[in-house]
Write a structure and sequence with these properties.
By secondary structure, this protein is mainly α. 62% of the residues lie in helices and 2% in strands. The chain has eleven helices and two strands, in the order αββαααααααααα. Strands 1-2 form a two-stranded antiparallel sheet. The longest helix has 26 residues. InterPro entries: Exportin-5_C. This is Exportin-5 C-terminal domain-containing protein.
Amino acid sequence: MVMELTRQVIDFIEYAIDPKTVVGSDTDNPKHVTSPEDAYLRDYILLQSPTLPFAIGAIVVKVICWKDTLSCRKAVLLGDKLVNALNADAKFHSLLGRDIFSAALQGILREHVGHVKEDGLKWEIINLARNIYCRLTLGLTPVEECKGIDPCNQPPRPASLLCTAPREILLSLPDVTPPQVDALDTLLREKHSMKTQKNAFKELLELPILVIRREEALASGSTSPVSSILGGTSKKIFDLPEKLVIPGKEFEAQVKWHQVHNSNLDTQSLFGAQ
């Protein structure tokens, strides 16, 4: 019941912020278009409402780390849409660069202790983290959006428009060093293939994953990570870095604050009040 409800909620939100209408379904080339009414609703939700983007982000953060693979996949895709739409606005940097980025890393780092995810979903989560890091921390625009700009020579963005939180979070992970993150930055700037960038992120995250699995094995009294996963009736979960844990609690408080201070928001004009 809860699982099905979660899936439907995610579907509803996705349709609200990325609505598509199929035209020409009886032809060989059907197209997905956004009607003016749907575009107006989307822009209100993402660009005008002071609370809805944060509320949607809170749902994404929770579902990305949830047990249901389908719900997680939908939340990851929804998170990617939020990043693409909101990355240029600094007021969303904490939501995107800290909370959703942390949730994505948790979804990867914790999969061995119950959050088992298929390889395809792992790559989607890695791609979400990559997209956040490239856009917010490095100020890079994807190749497909570089119209009239050389992707390899993009003008640097002012530091005030960048978000350092994703980099700080990576550096807080076990066995991740500044030179390794510097090397990742260089590769992401020079190599614009999405596949190459995702592979680089995966290689960096393999280091803390191994450490966490090793610590989990030691905590369970076994020298084998496999036996710690499969055996034993009691099992401790190795604590993740503080930077991956604290943002969630602060984010929930932030959402509540927005709800309280905007409870009287007039949305009648959106629905054509008489």
